[in-house]
Amino acid sequence: MNPARVMFLAGEASGDAHAAEIARLLMLKQPELQISGMGSTEMIKAGIDVFFDSSIIAVVGLFEVLRHWRDIRRAMAIVRERMRQTRPDLLVLVDYPEFNLRIARHAKALGIPVLFYISPQVWAWRPKRIHKIGRLIDHMAVIFPFETQYYEKAGIPVSFVGHPLVGKVKPGARASTMRSLLGISADARVIGLFPGSRQSEIRHLLPLMFATARRMRAQDASLRFVLPVAATLNYDEILQQARDSGADICVTRDDLYDVILSCDAIVTCSGTVTLEIALLGVPMCIVYRISPLSFQIMKRLLTIPHISLVNIVAQREVVRELLQGDANPEAVSRELQRLLGDSNYRATIGEGLDTVRRNLGSGNGAQNMAELVLSLLPAAKAET
After folding, report:
1. What residue spans in the chain does CATH classification 3.40.50.2000 cover?
2. Which fold has domain 175-359?
3. What is the pLDDT of residue 109?
4. Dihedral sign computed on CA atoms, order 172, 175, 177, 178
5. Beta strand pairing status for 139-142 and 114-117?
6. Superfamily of segment(s) 5-164+362-376
7. Which of 25, 76, 86, 218 has the fewest CB atoms in 10 Å of its CB?
8. Which residues, other chains included, contact 226 with Cβ-Cβ below 8 Å and sequence gap of 6+?
9. Region label for 191, one of left (φ > 0), alpha (ψ between -120 and 50) or beta (otherwise)
10. How far apart are CA 241 and CA 246, in angstroms?
11. pLDDT for 151-199, tens place per residue?
């Protein structure tokens, strides 16, 4: 019998990393599996046959999507053709819902079973779309316990697999070691600048973070700033922008978790990285900027009071969110100074981050997901 074929589709950096980890576990369990997909550097390193580089289409916001619509359409066409040619036994869609649900429609038409991993945020906006999702997929794998109730109520097969970061977010070195590697003294106060992994995030947030760093350095020249560059971005371009910023910023591609732990406070984009920072217990504030019209549309669609995963998981405001016009150098500087200087405030945030860690579960998310993938393959092909 021919080996089973699994296709992963990941549209951004976090999904690329999650798909890569699951694929590695699948290959250990069933080495003969044929795994292909749309992804980026992590999936390639995992040995997946990547037929489209998703970093080209990793954008957020209505107008950002429109700006890249030609690339997105090309990606869809390539994926559809590859599905038609190879007929995978299972299509695993990793997050990136607007793109992936369009592809799910084509997969269903071809008779290809669809597993969606990391649920669209039906609990945050457009809740009625859960019924459309149910018509397009065969199974939903969720990473937050509270999500299962939505799918069970709608009669959609669902599994809680746990959050993939739990048990994985561990620094490889001590904070002092990383500071030494970065050329930062052990007693310096260090602020992390985390603009994100998407080009659209860099465009909207990096100038804000540079302006904040300049403002804070003018007030206290002893402050140090460190900026980790995601693998999906051009390191040399970011390095040159940092040099031109006039803020004396240390740019690095060292291990992200080591960099996080070396910081006293962090200003970050929203997204998965906020959970990584939370799991390591570092105080942070979150900044969010997209095009004004995209933001107005988003505000009307949201049904929850927070936009960051940290606050959503905690179900209350644990860390400050600065959105759109409120995300300015003065406001960000004030919040970072409070994070650095107010011990009671830091302690309160620390307690909130503990709550987030507990709510994310006990771990083994990738392992559980790999087992779910194998269970959904044709019985004869899923034997290990």
Report:
1. 5-164+362-376, 175-359
2. Rossmann fold (3.40.50)
3. 96
4. positive
5. parallel
6. Glycogen Phosphorylase B; (3.40.50.2000)
7. 218
8. 182, 184, 190, 191, 192, 193, 249, 250, 251, 252, 259, 262, 263
9. beta
10. 9
11. 999 999 999 998 888 888 888 888 889 999 999 999 999 999 999 988 8
